[in-house]
TrEMBL record:
The lineage of its organism: Bacteria, Pseudomonadati, Bacteroidota, Cytophagia, Cytophagales. Its main location: membrane. It is found in: Endomembrane system. It comes from the Bacteria. The chain crosses the membrane at residues 6-24, 45-71, 83-103. It is a multi-pass membrane protein. This is Sterol desaturase family protein. Keywords: Lipid metabolism, Membrane, Oxidoreductase, Transmembrane, Transmembrane helix. Residues 90-223 form the Fatty acid hydroxylase domain. Pfam families: FA_hydroxylase.
Amino acid sequence: MKLHDVHIICFIVLIVGVILLIWFERKYPYRKGISFFREGFWTDLLAYAIVQSFLLKILIFDYIIAPIQLFIPIKYMISVGSWPIACQLLFFLITHDLYIYWFHRWQHANKILWRTHEAHHSNQKIDWIAGARSHSLEISINQTIEFLPIILLGADPIIIPIKGLIDGLWGMFIHANIRVSLGKLRYIINGPEFHLWHHANHHEVFHANFSTKFSFWDVIFRTLYESPNQPSSWGLYYKFPKNYFAQHWYAFYRWTFKPREKKQEDL
């Protein structure tokens, strides 16, 4: 199958996946009363998910990965190109997810790195598109480390769009406002039941539930938190800028905000 065809198929699957997630959110909401066009929706959809993603794709592949390739020729690397496509994909899914777990955990433990991650936790109403809100510096680091090995290790080019599709859909799924249980599988595959707790404004989960795709990282490294109850509030315990540019600048320059007051709808 041609690479162009793979891109088209991935785009179609992405659109279908988004429609299904939105339908499930309306049909089986984890948290009732969240409007589809909730506060910050257009910032997350347009500024983060569309414009930022498009621009960062150009930056990462053309101005970060491409120059690195000039200094690290592929011929000196171990190639995975002869592996079956499924094995290549699984290899990069697992290794990158392990990296994300530890980097994510470090962001919560380090005051400087937290500044590149706090925007991601600033939404008080988590839904399918809320996960797109991530500082461009954080995305640049993570996606460079994600896609650079795929290229340097000589993987089949179709791995990039397929993995990008899985990342995108999985990211939307774990943030989706859907009441769903994966049963015992939840200790292997990550879903909303664990990740929505990670976004809660609760002290007990600030250093818990770091996994993205595979929840077994939290199980192995003893950072899993689960509860039969639902969080009382989500987001940050302090006020955070609502404007896209201010959210980025706030990571480098702090100005005083009063702690936000909990509204009745947060309780």
